[in-house]
Request: fold
Amino acid sequence: MTDAVLKVDKLTRYFRVGGFRSAGTLHATDEVSFEVAPGEIVALVGESGSGKSTIARVLAGLYPPTSGTITFEGKVQGKSASRKVRGRMPMVFQDPFGSINPVLRVGHSLHRSLKLHRPELDRAARDAEAVALVERVGLLPGAEVLRRYPHELSGGQRQRLGFAQALASRPSLILADEPVSMLDVSIRIGLLNVMKGLRDQEHVSLLYITHDLASARYVADRMIVLYAGRIVEEGTTEEVIANPSHPYTRLLMATAPDPRLPLAHDTDVEDLGEPPKVINPGPGCRFAPRCPLAMDQCRSSTPAMVSLSATKRVACYAVEQS
Reply:
């Protein structure tokens, strides 16, 4: 994708942990590389601790990268994101109160974003644009919603407000960090449809961070599977879901089995239950302690990403030899 709106090359982020005598290095992400095309939804999928949210926070400028390159809209980014970049690549948090002041009216956050990122608008234009933004994400009537306080909105409405606030800066890419995980299952579909609408109608790209394969399948064009800070598989969503190659991806699939398939199809990989070591990790594949297919080679060197098709890649020695 030569016209990618976002290109991440070998992004690495480490954290120092422990005290003076027991200091260690937590490898949150290790040499992660991927791209996001204009008008595309890419899902970063993995269990807790896989590095998904760390990637989003580095992209948003909340953490500086330890190493690696981030190219956004054709320009290589520095250690900290500028105001313009933060506006063009805003973040929607898992907890909507992370970006909405709970003691001020809903309209305050939108007006503040508009004043900050679109200073050419006068007060009347900001009022009209704020109403249009909340109605664009399904909050009706917009003028009434803007007069409410956040606690007067449901969780789903507050998350919709988070997307409206992100839209205020006219972004080209939105970082959506687990935006539906705190919502009831019955109302998640509405917010996922908002995300699809932003892609289809506004041509906004989204990096959707989730541990839920079902929602990723519904909304994402491509899927990137992370384990312990490394990408283990990526491809089109339907390709990954229909034919998961990496043993970890197959385990994730087993957590949300397809009722249309026989039980024998759910998974043919047993989880040995060993958690990943991300503090001072040694050589080899980080999934090897949990993988029944692991070989000596898996424990001594890290597998590189290899192409299985024009759109699918995987990092697994067992898959290479099969």
Observations:
- The chain has two domains: 6-90+171-269, 100-170.
- The chain has a mean pLDDT of 90.
- Residues 100-170 form one domain.
